[in-house]
Design goal:
Strand content: 15-25%
Keywords: ATP-binding, Nucleotide-binding, Transport
Number of domains: 1
Oligomer: single chain
Pfam families: ABC_tran
Protein name: Putative ABC transport system ATP-binding protein
GO molecular function: aspartic-type endopeptidase activity; ATP binding; ATP hydrolysis activity; transmembrane transporter activity
Strand order of the largest sheet: 6-7-8-3-9-10
CATH topology: Rossmann fold
CATH architecture: 3-Layer(aba) Sandwich
Bound molecules: adenosine-5'-triphosphate
InterPro entries: AAA+_ATPase, ABC_transporter-like_ATP-bd, ABC_transporter-like_CS, ABC_transpr_LolD-like, MacB-like_ATP-bd, P-loop_NTPase, Peptidase_A2_cat
CATH class: Alpha Beta
Order of helices and strands: HEEEHEEHEHHHEHEHEEH
Largest sheet: 6 strands, mixed
Number of strands: 10
CATH superfamily: P-loop containing nucleotide triphosphate hydrolases
Number of helices: 9
């Protein structure tokens, strides 16, 4: 018997349906999505505007509840958990990186990085923190406040914050959306280095084929369904697949 790939993944959706609203105004944002995200892999989710990328990511991260189907994080079915448990899962088992860096302005870079662990009463793994600070080139920036850092540096602080708790999955939502192309390339380069050196699982939503080119795999969505799955594609292959999807609509 072969094992269903979604059962061995770090996080997986199994026949997930998400309907917003009711009756005539109901929107079927996800229409039976089954997809697994392998451990230690960097996957990008792409697709036309409104195809369900954010909805899928929010369901996978326990930020939104699927209407039906299962979301499996390790052995936990997130669709069966109370809000209280989901809050704990998000805090303890998931890392987030957003387009807007979401750093606290009154804290230093280092305090921002360790804040989630401090709030959870968990010890900071100094060795991992030093490794991340080195890889991310933040060594001389740790005592600075976010307003004293460039956008790229702020996003690197946010990456360190997401990674330092060794979460099962890091979800990144358009992490380079607010960065110029050079800072964006740096952030993505650091992110893929962290995936390789730490075996971190990363799922990233992006519109940018160049950003998706850093991923090991690109999952394509269209109209709330999986519309493609590309293994280590380059930017040109991704752009062509997106053009095909747009043409098919
Ligand atoms: N809270 C909501 N209430 C009602 N409809 C919603 C809600 N959130 C999303 N939708 C709808 O669900 C569909 C999928 O939206 P979603 O934001 O997941 O797409 P997306 O691929 O992330 O889009 P974009 O690339 O524009 O961010 C769209 O038709 C959207 O209008």
């Amino acid at each position: 018997m072969t094992t269903h790939p979604t059962r061995t993944a770090a996080v997986a959706a199994v026949d997930v349906v998400k309907v917003y609203g009711r009756g005539d105004t109901a929107v079927r944002a996800l229409d039976g999505v089954s997809v697994g995200f392998g451990r230690g892999r960097f996957t990008a989710i792409m697709g036309p505007s409104g195809s369900g990328k954010s909805t899928l990511m929010h369901c996978l991260a326990g930020l939104d509840t699927a209407t039906s189907g299962q979301v499996l994080l390790g052995g936990t079915d997130l669709t069966r958990q109370s809000d209280k448990v989901l809050t704990r899962v998000r805090r303890e088992r998931i890392g987030f990186v957003f387009q807007s860096f979401n750093l606290l302005p009154q804290l230093t870079a280092e305090q921002n990085v360790t804040l989630p662990l401090d709030l959870a009463g968990r010890d900071v793994d100094r060795e991992l923190l030093d490794h991340l600070v080195g890889v991310l080139g933040l060594g001389d920036r740790l005592a600075h406040r976010p307003s004293e850092l460039s956008g790229g540096q702020q996003q690197r602080v946010a990456l360190a914050r997401a990674l330092v708790s060794r979460p099962e999955v890091v979800f990144a939502d358009e992490p380079t959306g607010n960065l110029d192309s050079r800072s964006g390339a740096e952030v993505l380069g650091f992110l893929s280095t962290c995936v390789r050196t730490l075996g971190q699982t990363v799922v990233m939503v992006t519109h940018d084929p160049v950003a998706a080119g850093y991923a090991d795999r690109v999952v394509l969505l269209a109209d709330g369904r999986i519309a493609g799955d590309l293994d280590r594609p380059d930017g040109a292959t991704i752009s062509a697949a997106l053009r095909d999807l747009a043409g098919a609509r």
